[in-house]
């Protein structure tokens, strides 16, 4: 279990570094949209290589065709994340941008958990969870100073 905690922390650190790299790429390319495309393109190549080299079975055409359409929209929301981050980091800084993103993730996640969106396990919103989200928001305010 501890390995997954470290994996999550490492993933978070990589997101922070990704946003700085994408922000700098935006300056070099003169476009947040081309920087976002480049980020996704490189990520797609890495994920394709990983999927091809990883052990295990490959999904069949019928399995792929049977996936509900809504599950294919993750990349759309990823594009919102990448585009928003590329625009926010130069103006707000990496720490403030990512702190605000985490607040958005927390609020969205609490709502999704509460209603069990798309079949995830329900975890009702409680005063303790709301308090945690408020502390996180307070952390954003403190990071801005």
Structure characteristics:
globular; 145 residues; mainly alpha; 79% helix
Judging from the principal axes of the Cα atoms, what is the shape?
globular
Helix-strand category: mainly alpha
The main β sheet shows up as: none
In the residues, how many domains can be counted? 1
The counted number of beta strands is 0
Number of helices: 6
Mean pLDDT: 92
Strand content: under 5%
Distance between the termini: 35 Å
Describe the 3D structure.
This protein has 145 residues and is an all-alpha fold. It has one domain. It has 6 helices and no strands. Helix 4 packs antiparallel against helix 5 and helix 5 packs antiparallel against helix 6. The two termini are 35 Å apart. The mean pLDDT is 92.
Present the secondary structure layout.
Blueprint: H1 2-29, H2 32-53, H3 61-65, H4 74-92, H5 94-115, H6 127-144
Q: What's the short story on this structure?
A:
The chain is an all-alpha fold. It has helices at 2-29, 32-53, 61-65, 74-92, 94-115, 127-144. Helix 1 packs across helix 2 (32-53), helix 4 packs antiparallel against helix 5 and helix 5 (94-115) runs antiparallel to helix 6 (127-144).
């Amino acid at each position: 279990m501890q390995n997954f905690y470290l994996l999550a922390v490492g993933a978070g650190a990589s997101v922070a570094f990704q946003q700085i790299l994408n922000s700098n790429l935006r300056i070099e390319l003169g476009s947040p949209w081309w920087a976002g495309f480049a980020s996704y393109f490189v990520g797609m190549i890495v994920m394709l290589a990983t999927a091809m080299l990883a052990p295990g079975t490959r999904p069949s055409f019928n399995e792929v065709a049977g996936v509900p359409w809504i599950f294919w929209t993750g990349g759309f929301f990823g594009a919102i994340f990448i585009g928003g981050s590329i625009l926010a980091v130069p103006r707000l800084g990496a720490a403030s941008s990512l702190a605000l993103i985490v607040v958005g993730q927390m609020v969205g996640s609490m709502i999704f958990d509460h209603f069990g969106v798309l079949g995830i396990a329900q975890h009702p919103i409680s005063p303790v969870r709301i308090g945690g989200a408020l502390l996180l928001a307070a952390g954003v305010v403190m990071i801005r100073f």
